[in-house]
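Can anyone check this?
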Amino acid sequence: MKKSNANKNKIDTRKLTCRNCDRDTFHKILRSVHSCEDYGDISVWEDYEIVECKGCKELSFHKSTANSDDWDENPVTHEISITPKSEVYPNRLSGRKSIKDKYYLPPSVKTIYEETHTALCGKLNILAGIGIRSLVEVVCKEKNANGKNLEQKINDLVHQGILTQGNADSLHFTRLLGNFSAHEAKSPNTNELDIAMDVVENLLKNVYILPEKTKKI
């Protein structure tokens, strides 16, 4: 039988990533529900919380899940501990805010960028890798790049003067990462994805955002 209790938390704050402050901050727990359900020899605990950043007052939803079968033993002290799985909505990663002035992006580019950013923050690494490659493809298409494949189209952006050779070399890294995600259905590591996202965000700034902003000077 599932049992639930409202506002019975033993703590009143949690340290979570704030998407507005873009770093880990202390969050006040405004409302909470704790539930427990037994499945034979295994018990599952869940905490649902509405939290507020104590710095900027940004509101978020936090869910914490644990079960009695998911435990670790300290090899020195032999103490048993259970580390709950923590999720925060809307999804976010510390230091990975959405690109500033993204409203300058063409609609097709902006849509793919936002979905890729959401996948990255949600730790959906395979989808994020595919999205990063798709971003490069849609930029090539939007700029009418010539070539039989993405590699040739990226190189054509250099010939058009849209990219430097150094920028193109960086984009080839994202292309290969996207191939790995799409064709091998394997998850890139977080560090690779972080670098690849930096590369494509730099591409979007140089190709779309900065030229539009300089027009206003």
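Reply from J.R.: I decoded it. Strands lie at 2-6, 13-18, 23-39, 42-53, 59-67, 72-73, 80-81, 85-89.
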